[in-house]
Amino acid sequence: MTGTSKNPVADVPRGTTIRGKWNKQTYQIMKKLGSGALGTVYLADSVKGRVALKVGTDSMSITSEVNVLKQLSMVQGTVLGPFFYEIDDWERNGKKFPFYVMEYIDGEPLFTFINRRGKEWIGILMLQLLRDLSVLHREGWVFGDLKPDNLLVEGSPPTMRWLDVGGTTPMGRSVKEFTEFFDRGYWGLGNRVAEPSYDLFSVAMIVLNAGYPKRFDRPKKDSEHYLMNKIEGSQLLREYKPILRKALLGKYNYASEMRQELFALLQGEQINVRKNKNVAGHSRVAARQTRPTVKKKRSGWIETVLLVAFLLFFYTLYLVGHIF
Fold it and tell me: Of 80, 240, 243, 320, which one has the fewest beta carbons inside 10 Å?
């Protein structure tokens, strides 16, 4: 399965008015946002303002997705998916099509944001994604069709949001919707059973996709060796190699494990950068010291330094709480 949908309502023309059979609410289609195996998502105008509207062909599938959205909205402390508004039916040319309406997330596509803000944001946003996946997995679900197209970045500080939860599957069942490049079954590196390691494979492939925007085809054999060579062939990906390798080979049982190791890796890189800057700074200072230093009074400045350190500490906690 890929991102291409073959359902008969995949192309509702712009300007079409969809009127719910039961709730009588009307929505004017503005543009198509994306398609999947189970339906097509459109941007629509309504009395609520701009909304995202998904039209499908199978009532059971649409109802299942709505149940997922409702479940995610009940998770305390984390916004995992779009807010759900309503579900209804639309009659078109004598046929009935189920649809549901959800929050329109006016964010920036993941890779567009990274290209604009810098590659260092990959690690930060993956920390956010792994945090949210950890919550989802604890609730008994797997995202399934995890890919850049289903991820947006919005707000300040930048926050990762999930665009489409159509592939979300209960733990232990077969993943119902996937995209080949991000699917471990396609690469021959695992099955399609819904478990945390399935999503974590997809997270690793999202990072690989950042290194290879045009993606690449599957080899005829030995996908493991092939993917490792792809990682080695990219300066960006080599930084994440230990974590990517474990995720691709299913070595993580929980998203929290992968997140902890990624956090440690990023923290280590920051410490090394600071050390290098400090070494360079000390060298320049030493070269300039041509006269002995004069002993100065210490009263007053120690208190100032402590006060600044105290404020920086709490500001750092504030940023960590919003970004991670």
Answer: 320
